[in-house]
Amino acid sequence: MSLFFLVVILEIRKEVVSGHLSSFRRIALPLIGAVGGMIVPALIYLLVTYGHPEAVRGWAVPVATDAAFTLPIILALGRHVSPGARAWLMALAIFDDVLGIMVIALFYGHALYWPAMGAVMILTGALIGANRAGIMNLWNYGIGGVLLWIALRYSGLHPTLAGVVTGLCLPAGVSGRVVGDASPLERVAAELGPFVTWGVLPLFGFMNVGVSLTGFRPEMMLKAVPLGIMAGLVIGKPLGVFGATWIATKLKIADLPVATSTRMIFGLSLLCGIGFTISLFIAGLAFPAPDLASSARLGIFAGSVFSALVGWLWLRFSMNYASSGAATG
Length: 329
Known about the structure:
It contains 12 helices and no strands. By secondary structure, it is mainly alpha-helical. The chain has one domain (2-109, 158-323): Up-down Bundle (Na+/H+ antiporter like fold), CATH 1.20.1530.10. Helix 9 runs antiparallel to helix 10 (262-271), helix 9 (224-250) packs parallel to helix 12 (290-328) and helix 11 runs antiparallel to helix 12. The longest helix is centred in the last third of the chain and has 39 residues, at 290-328. The radius of gyration is 21 Å and the shape is globular.
C-alpha cells in the first residue's frame, strides 16, 4: 500500500503543477467534498454503533473512496458523465486518499519508538535535501524511500507514510529541460501507475476481502459493525460529499465543473460510497479480532457493491432522461 499512496501523491502533484488542481477554485470544490465525505460517514457510523464499544475503533472504515474502482465505472458511463465531472471525482478521490493517510497515521499507529523516529527524521531530511539539491537519480529516492519505510515500521507510525514522503520529495521538473524529457516524478508515475492499478490493488483486494458466505444469515448484516459501515458508505458518503459540494457552490466558494449539473454531482456522490480497497486496509488496522474483521469485510463488500449499483443506475438513466428532456424541451 505504500506504493499506492506514493502514486496518489504523484498524481496530486501532477494535477497541481499543470492539471485540474492548478488553481485555488479548482482545488476547493473536490477538497471540500472530500472533507464532507469523511466527516458525515464517520458520524453516521458512530451513531449506528453507539453502545457497542468494541465497534468504535472502526469509525474510519467508511470514510474512504476507492478511486481504482470508481474510475472504470465513470469511464464505462461515457457521455453520461462530463469530462469536468470526471476530473472532479478523481480529484475528490485523491484528496480522500490523502485524508485517509492522515487518519491512518494519527489514529492507527502505535506508541512511538523514539530511536526509530530519529532515523525517520534524518531520512526525511535527506530526501528533502536531495530534492533541494536538484538530484535527479531515482536510485537515491528509491533507496531512501525503502530505508524510510523500515524506520517507520519500527517507529510506531504507519509505514505507508514512506510513500507519501517519497512522493513529495521526487523532483517535478528537469533543469535545462528539452521536449521529450520527463521529470523523475513523471517517470515514476508512468512506471508505477499501471502496476499499482492493475497489480497491487487487485491483489490486495483479493487477499483481504475474505467474505465467506458459509453459515451466512441475513440478520448478521444487522450487527453493529457491518450495519455501521454500510450506513456510512451508502448514506454517509453521498450525503457528506453532495451536501458539502452544494453548500460550497451556494456560498460561491467554487463553481461546478463545466457541463456538470447538481443531478450529475449527486450521482457521482453515490459512487463515492465505493470504499473497497482502502476501507479493507483500514478495517485490518482497526479490527485485529477475526470476528470483527470478518463482519467489517462483509459490510464493506455489501456497501460498496450497493453504492456502485445505485450510482451507475442513477447516472445511466437519470442523466439519460435529463438529456432527453433537455433535447425535447
